[in-house]
Structures are given as structure tokens and as C-alpha cells.
Amino acid sequence: MKILIAVPTTDMVPAHFAQSLVSLKKVGECAVSFSIGSLVYDARNQLAAQAIEKEADYVMWFDSDMIFNPDTLERLLAHDKDFVCGMYFRRRPPYTPTLFKKLRLTRSQTVMWEGYDDYPDHLFQIEGCGFGCVLMKTDMLIDIAAKYGNGSWFSPIANSGEDCSFCIRAKEQGYELWCDPTIPLGHIAQLPITEGFYTSLRKKGNENADKG
Prior knowledge:
- By secondary structure, the chain is of the alpha/beta class.
- It is 33% helix and 27% strand.
- The strands form three sheets. Strands 2-1-3-10-5-11-8 form a seven-stranded mixed β-sheet. It has a three-stranded antiparallel β-sheet with strand order 7-6-9, with helices on one face.
């Protein structure tokens, strides 16, 4: 099994990310590739092309502002899905998960979406996600290129980002997208935004609302 660990980045990476990457338990034949540039969709398209060229079976996407545990890759592979992500949280209030329960391209060619406040505590199906921690089979890239053309995987659709644009194309090709919320991840800001931070913040907000 061949896996490309793909990391788009604008320049230098945080030390905590580097430590996570070095500590990651590799499975099969793993290669790490960075794509450096100011346009994230272009960086992702370049990495996707590399995965196909290298005949990788999987692409493990990590953003360079993530922290993750050594067993992250093993746990995602164990689900045996075409596409499965971990759950992480936005770096700014209200710190909601970077997941979408609804993600649609309308007839007027605008993207409509709905996020999550609450979520299951087990593997569940989603319609879209951020790409900070995503494992996918390279066959998805080949299928999408067959319909949309090479280099089009992450090119923005209408008013959406590159990650949602990929998810829209994948769903149009009939792929199911899954999320495992039990995989510990942190989103590097001034402090890592973890699930515990988010749930404690919500609990505090509910307590304040009850007092009011």
C-alpha cells in the first residue's frame, strides 16, 4: 500500500505540526510532499496530481496548522472508506466544527451550506468538511478528473472554498463522505482549539443563558 502524505502550506510550518508529522506512525510505503504557495487550491491540485503520478493508493491530507496523534493515519485507514476525515474546530468564535451537514450548489450557481453545532460521538456521514485531516483513496481523484479534467479537483466553485468545492464534486460522482469525531485533533491558533475547549465553551454559554 502506498500513501502520499500531502501538506499544502504558504511558507514555514509551526513546530507543533512538525512534531506531529514526525511522530505519525507510517503504514505501508509512505511519502511526504509539501506544496508551497499562496493559493491553497493550486497547492492542493498539485499534490493531487502527484498522488496520481506516484500511483499512491491513498492521500492523507494534513494542513500545516494542525496537531494530531501518532495513530491518526492508522485509525482513519481502519474505516476502509473512500473518504474519511477527523473533526477539528474553527480558530475563531463560535469555534464550531469545520463540517457541513448540508452543502449544495444551487441552480443560480451559488453554494448553500449548513454547519454543525451538535454531532454524534461515532463515525457519521457528512456532506463536506475542511481538509485539515482527510484520508481519501486516490481513485476519487482519478474519477473526478475524468469528469471535470485534470487540475480541477480543488478549483473553487462559485462562492465556496477549495475544500467545499472538492466535496461538491465528489458527491456529484456518488461518493460518500465520512467523519470520525473521536480522533483527537487540534487547530493551531494562539491555543489549540480542541473538542474539549469547544464543549466547555458551549457548556459555559448554556449556564450563562440559564442564569439570564
